[in-house]
Amino acid sequence: MRPLRGPARPRPRPGARATLAALLALPLAGALLVLAPAAPAAAAEDVATEEAVVTSGTGADAAELDTTVYVPGSAAGEPAPAVVLAHGFGGSKDSVADDARFLAERGYVVLTYSARGFGASTGQIGLNDPRFEVADLSTLLDRLAERDDVLLDGDGDPRVGVAGASYGGALSLLGAGYDDRVDAIAPQITWNSLTAALFPSQVGDAAADTVASTPQDADSGVYKRLWSGLFFGVGSVPTGGLLDALGGAGAGVTALPQRDAADVDPALVEQLLTCGRFRADICAAYQDAAATGTLTPEVAAVLDRSSPATVLDRIQAPTLLVQGTQDSLFGLGQADANARGIAANGTPVKMVWYAGGHDSQASERTTESLRTEVAGWFDWYLRDVGDPGRGTDPGTGFQFPAPTGLAAGIGSVQGGNQTVLATEYPGLTGDDAAQRAEIAVAGPVQPVVTPAGGTPAAITVVPGLGSLGAALSGSTFEIPGQFAAFDSEPLEEAVEVVGATTVDLAVASPSGSATLFAKLYDVGPDGQQTLPSGLVAPLALTGLPADPTAPTEVAVTLPAVVHRFEAGHTMRVVVSSTDQAFALPAEAAVYSVALADGDGATLAVPEVDGRTETGGGTSRWWLLLGAVVALGLLGWAAAVLWGRRQRRRISVVEPDGEEVPLRFTGVTKAYKDGFVAVRDLSFEVRRGQVLGLLGPNGAGKTTSLRMLMGLIRPTEGRISIFGHAAAAGAPVLSRLGSFVEGTGLQPHLSGRDNLRLYWAATGRPAADAHMDEAIAVAGLGAAIDRPVRRYSQGMRQRVAIAQAMLGLPDLLVLDEPTNGLDPPQIHAMREVLRSYAATGRTVIVSSHLLSEIEQTCSHVVVMAKGQKIAQGTVDEIVGTGGAVLVGLADDAETERAIAVLEGLPGVSAERTDEGLVAELDGTSRARALQALIEAGLEVDAFTPRRRLEDAFLSLVGEERA
Fold first, then answer.
1. Is 411 a domain residue?
2. CA-to-CA distance for 885 and 394, rounded, in angstroms?
């Protein structure tokens, strides 16, 4: 094996024509690069393949690398440049087989291999450890140098380029830093510092010259728990199974002598089960990080040695950096750091950002454009001058997707096929520093609660799926009370953010430390907010004061994004205490978060000027596009007209809205799988009514309430609250108080603090809360100041109902309000609701306790199978049917009364424990009562015998029949 060599000499020269895709949808998927035909430099030719096992390393650290070399027929007569393709984490040489064959057909000798610990290669995973994986690359370059069909630049020096994504991209950077025989590289969606990637803390002053510079605290960070767990899970199971691992049969671990399972060392079994194919130090570092969530010097040492950041000053191979804007694993700041470090050597660097990454697959058009970029880079730096396939100088510019105001959802990315081209990546040469606009944001000092154990936590990023909120029509999953928000004024003109925005905050914490997550939201005029690229900036803060009146000022770098904030939109900085993708503090605390300059601060927003281009094609393609655009414009015009008509219809305020607080009109909710939860539901509720919503499980009650609250949208129909259409973010929802599907209380806070925190999250004045009235409703006495975790279910229920009544809303919606209450509490709650409605307000109650509905509600809507089957007052519903209870002044007259009643058409009567019961079938109650009086019987009581439960069962039974 050739020894590793020191810093490379600058040797920019031509190279391999590799039309490689620069994306990896998931690093765990194994698929690395995708090739597509480009204008051929030569006709495709026959390709032969050579399989070989190459030994790399010595002794216990030796590995058998499974390799394949793709050899074009032309290489037998004229040596060709070589390309090494490295796969992503969890992949193998098979992941890049199609790419290799394509390159070989174009005249290149291509070497693919499975990294140690993957595929059929032995050895243990060292995460691109220079002693192992990087040394393996040098061993493979030695093999290429020994081939007669590979072009050499000197003895033992093949002309070679290295390309890879994610895991393979880091290998290309490290390989170029340790072995100066590498002539050009194209690392894609990879890391600069594995420590900063897995323990980020975007606190401190960023390098101002570049647009995506992201600071990192060298001593601490917030552990990226979900991504780390995915990585370790992929590498922790031996590829051949446990017994194969123990026998060394293709297990990805150092081979051991074959043995009977009974003779296996239990310690070895435990090591394989817990660490799998990872080296012991990697396994120990992961287990330590996963258990504690903290960055120790030992963990940092393991991650740092696998980080290209340690060798950037050695890299002199021209570098094309490709990074995705949809990447919660290795963000744009990682590529920025690589660019700054490599360019400082005078090495040519070109930066390409694209709409995609580890969280979202790029579009086909974007993929095709990236293939052209990578191919052009290798064409220029690996092919000889005069070679017709060399192409044109790709330069050292910067390109990125044209900013749009769209949010990326699961499986999709923002933007279309437009790309912005700039002459330089700002700040690399020192002559063209980044431009930043200043946007003022404002907001008061705000308390931010971190719950015990970090639960519940905000949901913003799902590894491999990106922004969950964006995937759900822009909805976000911030927890009330767990975040502070600071807004700009509505923008007078659009702002295109290209890179990482910065802002100064002021933070205090009673413990002296805080874990926070900063985000930059786009808020539309309708209040709908989206999180560009679904990205957050973790902040690990220490040395904070406990006094919120004397906080510490903190410089924060928000996530680097490419996003257009349209005119009329608001830029919102949100600082939250939780995020489910990260490790969180176990102890509960309340932080104080404010802007550094009191009620105001400035966002420094990076902007980049450039020339916008659209993906090219043939003139026929443009004609087709023109036709599509023309049709699209016609459709758009029709949609606009229809939308205006719809908005006019929806925005109409019903004239009787103040008298009819709630109205459902033809409401249907259908799902994509064909299930209809609610069908053509229509009813109305007037002021002063207490309406009971009844129905068996699956009747559509909860769906109806969720539509009413604006949580989901009806497929058809209209729901109006006080005459205004109900929808997410509608101002009229401020007149609604609700308690649906769980209390949502913070267990570590007292009942009183929960009420205060909930009201503070609404942003309304404290005086409007009517806190004393709500606390009286809870009826907990001194217990209102004890932590909620000590409450019984009934006590929690009462606090939650009081929370819904904060502000004395005009419309109160309660789902199962008496769950967990004892009979006296149920009676008290009944009186509260009746009294509340008596003030002219309206109450909606959904409950399965029919006796309580009967005693509490004035009106009832009965649902079954998503449809309304009855509506009316309780008396009307109960009175439907013919059973009456007859009370006589003289029991001795009972037999004569029975005779009188049974003399009427369809009437039967009998003596029961309750008294005389008559079933009226075809005879009205008035006629039966008249007959008894005419017979001279003295009637003390004549009341319907049926209860609401009986009516309900009868109605639902009829519907089911």
1. no
2. 95
Rounded to an integer, the average pLDDT of 497-501 is 96
Lowest mean pLDDT among 52-61, 246-255, 319-328, 630-639: 246-255
Neighbours of 556 (CB within 10 A): 24
| Residues 820 and 938 placed together within one structural domain of the fold | no
Where do runs of H (alpha helix) occur along 193-249?
A: 194-198, 225-235, 242-247
For residues 601 and 637, membership in a common domain is answered with: no
- Residue 234, SS3? helix
pLDDT at site 879: 54
Identify the bridge partners of residue 941 per DSSP, sorted by sequence position.
887
Number of H helices and E strands in the chain, helices first, is 23, 40
393-448: pLDDT as tens digits: 999 999 999 998 765 443 444 445 688 999 999 998 766 788 999 999 999 999 99
Are 455 and 321 within one domain? no
348 — phi, psi (to 5°)? -60, 130
Contact criterion met (CB below 8 Å) for 906 and 921: yes
Buried-exposed string 760-769: b where 16+ CB fall within 10 A, e elsewhere: ebeeeeeeeb
Give the span between the Cα atoms of 103 and 18, in whole angstroms: 6
> Could you tell me if residue 102 is left (phi over 0), alpha (psi between -120 and 50 degrees) or otherwise beta?
alpha
Residues 728 and 826 in one domain: yes
Shared domain check, 593 and 499: yes
CA atoms 555, 560, 561, 564: torsion sign: positive
Domain span at 637: 617-651
> Per-residue pLDDT for 113 more than 60?
yes
Dihedral of CA atoms 225, 561, 165, 1 in degrees, nearest 10, equals -80
Q: Note whether 326 and 294 are within 8 A (CB).
A: no
| Cα–Cα distance measured from residue 800 to residue 831, given in angstroms and rounded to the nearest whole number | 17
Q: What letters, b where the CB count within 10 A reaches 16 and e where it falls short, cover 397-412? A: ebbbbbbbbbbbbbeb
Which pLDDT tens digit goes with each residue over 49-82? Answer: 999 999 999 999 999 999 999 999 988 888 989 9
**Cα first-last separation, the chain:** 83
In the β-sheet with 724-725, what is the strand arrangement from edge to edge?
676-685, 662-670, 716-721, 724-725
Regarding predicted confidence, which is higher, 419 or 183? 183
Is residue 417, in this structure, part of any structural domain at all?
no
CA distance 383 to 688: 84
Average pLDDT for the chain:
81
- Taking CA atoms, 855 is separated from 696, 821, 830, in Å, by 19, 16, 8
- Whether 55 is in a domain gets the answer yes
Record the pTM.
0.63
Cβ neighbours for 717, distance < 8 A, ≥ 6 positions apart:
664, 665, 666, 667, 668, 680, 681, 682
Sequence-ordered list of residues with C-beta below 8 angstroms from that of 374, at least 6 positions apart, any chain: 18, 19, 20, 21, 22, 163, 186, 320, 322
Distance, in Å, from the CA atom of 596 to the CA atom of 506, rounded to the nearest integer, reads 5
- In this structure, the answer to whether residues 468 and 601 fall within a common structural domain is yes
Give the angle 35-37-43 at the CA atoms, nearest 5°. 120
DSSP H or E run through 363: none
Asked if pLDDT for residue 622 goes beyond 80, the answer is no
Q: Which two tokens stand for residue 321?
A: 């950096």
Sequence letter at residue 362: A
Give the Cα separation of 792 and 280 in Å (integer): 48
DSSP label of 490: P
Answer yes or no: do 669 and 789 share one domain: yes
